[in-house]
Design brief:
Chain lengths: 80, 222
């Protein structure tokens, strides 16, 4: 089973990189760009075949290492 | 005072710390590799500056999972003094030995220069040789030193006298919440700070303001 984990800054946590990307897009002429927030995508291959168990395991991975939950949130997407 | 310096792959202030410790204590510290499982019996453990594990994932995240950290945690819980400088501070927040997180500098630039610091707390093993309210200068050299914690945590740190160092008025180099430069653990035996006291112990290298961090520790722990 494959999984994709998205790690992004929590709402309200300042994202200076996102801000800089937004300014750069504005400077390129993309005038409609408002707030930009950036984050990480982590693709993981798992030997686990049970979706429920895989999800629970991925949550533990996020809590222990992949995200720093003081400042970041995560979302898990499972792919068959 | 016996000390140890933990060396991670891509630590780069481990030798600065070792030179400062030897100069101040007269004893060479034990250098402990991250893959070792035990730190010898010492009074002070230093987690040095650098870019452990290439800052992969997040600064300090990989180091916080390294084998030696289990023993650092166990010894910290028993009351052994732990000093985390720069990347060492990042490792301490990632391990949960100190609250909060160190984020990308607000202006996105790596900042490398001396900054003014106010001694906020002289009631600690790390700062007792300073006077409360005194201003000193230590160099900073980091891209991710922007201290973040929620308001409740910040209030608690301030209420419990655990903010040891603050950037002096107008000198905050990274956007840190409430100008925080260094904090103490609840039991006050763990200090993490972004500025580098170990780089200012010798007048030939630009200043001696950092000497009293080591003097404080020697007075307390010897």
């Amino acid at each position: 089973m494959k999984a994709r984990v998205f790690v992004t800054l929590k709402n309200g946590v300042l994202d200076p990189q996102g801000k800089a990307i937004g300014h750069a897009l504005n400077n390129l002429g993309f005038a409609s760009v408002g707030e930009v927030r950036q984050g990480k995508v982590i693709d993981i291959e798992l030997a686990e075949t049970d979706a429920g168990k895989a999800k629970a395991e991925l949550e533990r991975m996020c809590e222990k290492l992949l995200a720093n939950t003081v400042i970041e949130k995560y979302e898990i997407e499972l792919k068959a | 005072m016996k000390s140890a310096v933990v060396v991670f792959p891509a630590s780069n202030c481990d030798r600065d710390a070792a030179v400062a410790l030897e100069q101040m204590t007269g004893q060479k510290p034990v250098m402990v590799w991250h893959g070792d499982s035990e730190i010898p019996d010492v009074d002070l453990i230093v987690l040095p500056g650098g870019f452990s594990y290439g800052d992969y994932l997040r600064c300090g995240a990989m180091a916080s999972q390294s084998r030696i950290i289990r023993d650092v945690k166990a010894k910290a819980d028993k009351g052994v003094a732990v000093l985390g400088i720069c990347n060492g501070f990042q490792v301490l927040t990632e391990t949960g030995l100190l609250p909060g997180a160190l984020m990308r500098n607000a202006k996105l630039k790596f900042v490398c220069r001396p900054v003014g610091l106010t001694i906020e707390e002289s009631q600690s093993a790390f700062t007792r040789a300073y006077a409360k309210g005194e201003t000193v200068r230590f160099p900073v050299a980091h891209g991710e030193g922007n201290y973040f914690a929620d308001d409740a945590t910040l209030d608690r740190l301030e209420g419990e006298g655990r903010v040891a160092f603050r950037y002096a008025e107008g000198e905050n180099p990274n956007g840190s919440a409430r100008n925080i430069a260094g904090i103490l653990s609840e039991k006050r035996n763990v200090l993490g700070l972004m500025p580098h006291p170990e780089r200012v112990v010798d007048a030939a290298l630009g200043g001696t303001d950092g000497r009293r961090v080591f003097q404080s520790l020697i007075e307390t722990l010897s």
